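Hey, resending since the last one bounced:
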Amino acid sequence: MILPYLPGPPMLAPDSPRLSPPWSLRVLLAASMLLPFLAAGLFVWHDYQRSLTTASQRVDRIATIATEHALKVVDTNALVLDRMGELLRGLSWEELRAQRERIHQGLRALDQRVNQLRVLHIVEPNGDLLAISIAWPTPQVNLATRDYFRHHAEGYNGVYFGEPLVGRTSGELAFTMSRPRLSGDGRFDGVYLGSVPPAYFEQQWQTMAGTGERYIALLREDGTVLARCPPGTQPSVTPAASSLLQLARAGGTEPSWVSDANHQEWLATTRRVGQEQILVTYALPRSEILAGWRRTTAVVLAVTAAITFALSFVTWLACNRWVAAQAALQSLAGTARELREQIEKRERAEEQLAQAQRLEAMGRLTGGIAHDFNNLLTAILGTVQMLERHLGAQADDRAKRLMAAARDAVARGARLNSSLLSFARRQPLKREALDANALVTGFEPLIQRALGEAVTLRLSLSPGLPHCHADAAQLEAALLNLAINARDALPEGGEVEISTRTAWLSRADLINNEEAHPGPFTEIRMTDSGSGMEPDVLARAFEPFFTTKAPGRGTGLGLSQVFGFVRQLGGHVAIRSEPGRGTGVSLFLPLTPGTGVRVPEPQQQRQAAVVAMASATVLVAEDDAQVREMVAEMLREAGFRVLAAADGRQALELLENGEQVDVLFSDVVMPSGISGMDLARRALELHPGIGVLLASGYTGPVLGKEVPEFDILAKPYQRDVLVRRIAGLAQQARPTVA
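The structure tokens again:
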């Protein structure tokens, strides 16, 4: 039947992995977010460096201009002092006192012609003021305590710059420029000086430096500030004088960074004014230098953010469109996969039905032939017996041999007929209550002889089995047939195991088997480590006269006889085989009527869980090859279907590829970057109902302070403990097992 297609929006299955954009779109999205800011960062850095360079050039240029201006002022004032010296040349102090008014007029004339040097003084050797340009008559003042007077009196003959003071006569703040008057023999003979108002420099500097935060100062070599701009600035908000003097002593002219008392950085340079003992310094604070840069940076970042948002939004739309397209493709692929699975399920069901019908038809045909063949054998055997009675003692040796051969042929035909009747489920059976464990144990020597010395026989019998309902002789014959087949599959020796347990079969397990009913059964399983069967051979294994053995090695009736015998009892036969993995044949025998399965004690409950979950699938993740193979073989012997993975990444690939797994059994520490904990969490995301059991060679404290979130089985572990734990988890994952 072809199902109609109903269109609808693309939807992902609940267990489908979340789609992510391809790496190309991810890289493009990251680039759209990072590259604009990277470019902006480069621009901002370049602009930062440019701002510092521009500021350095500005500081250097203004410092040079201010130094040249200060040098011109100093030279002009020095000329004025020289002119004052000419007024006094050749005259004694008695003569000078007599001409005090003339001297005052001369000083006043000089004062009016020069703006940068005012309030001209002439001081006698004892410190008394002889004349002053701004006052007449001359005030009675002694200046012997002034620093400039003391320095000249102590022998300093150059131009001296006195500290800023408020003049006693003028009342103005000013610093002085002075020179000593020397006698004919070079001794100190008085001082002549002038006052320099700091405002003169401040006006020039304001015009020169413009507006904004900056600092220009005229310093003495001892750090005394003679003039500064802006005027009245507190020392705590200007570069430290000691730092500025260090720049001067270093001898360099390149601007350097210095700090003030508030730890604010200034870009400053200090220059000497000619050969004098004064310095000019100019400094710009970092905040002023970077103010324009910060404004530009804010604009650049705002524009960059807008560009980044636009590019990221466009890329995000592209990613969403890609994810939507992939989701639609995945939805279509999932629909196609579901259709293929439905078709495959229907084909398998049809194939199983055809196989069952073929076997049923062959059974009816074989039964009819065997019935007629029995009649023929009866006639032949009766005829042979009549001949023997007829001839009696007259029969010679040749006649006796021929009749014995006929009897043997009839016996072989009877055995062959019995096999045919067994397959046709028409042979007479002696049904009785049997202890399967006791029967297997008593029949072990004969099975071992049939297997030969090269094959090792191992029994794994489950205690406390309820009695089964079967024909002891036919059951032994069936086990013998299975043993012979196992021997032929092990030409170079190997291992055969016979195990018993109680199993529950559902209606799904008994498909195409109308003789059996769902419920508890006694299972006798024989497994070998032989070469196994190809799928096409496995599909015909129960057909009568089908054999892969060489001519003369078998009739092809062994498995068909087993199949018919168990079906006639109302039981079930299952076979599992893979090339290179051996073969296992399970005989499910009905329990004796009225015999129920006892309610297990706690230990029996665990064994029942093992039996009930024997068909579950276990994913074993173990990086040690020997441990992995040992665990896988243990679980296979217990009846589980086992998938093995060498590390967490390989196990995760099996889970992501859709493998149906009931229990994950994983080592905690594994390579490839995925631990057992990580694998367990990811497995629960992919398969929420999966059971998880972890194994570790360390005890709890070694795992750390973290409380384990999964059951942990300590190594080394026993087979029974492992199987019980796996079975319990499998029973939780799949309450009913097909």
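The two ends are 26 Å apart (CA to CA).

Sorry for the duplicate.
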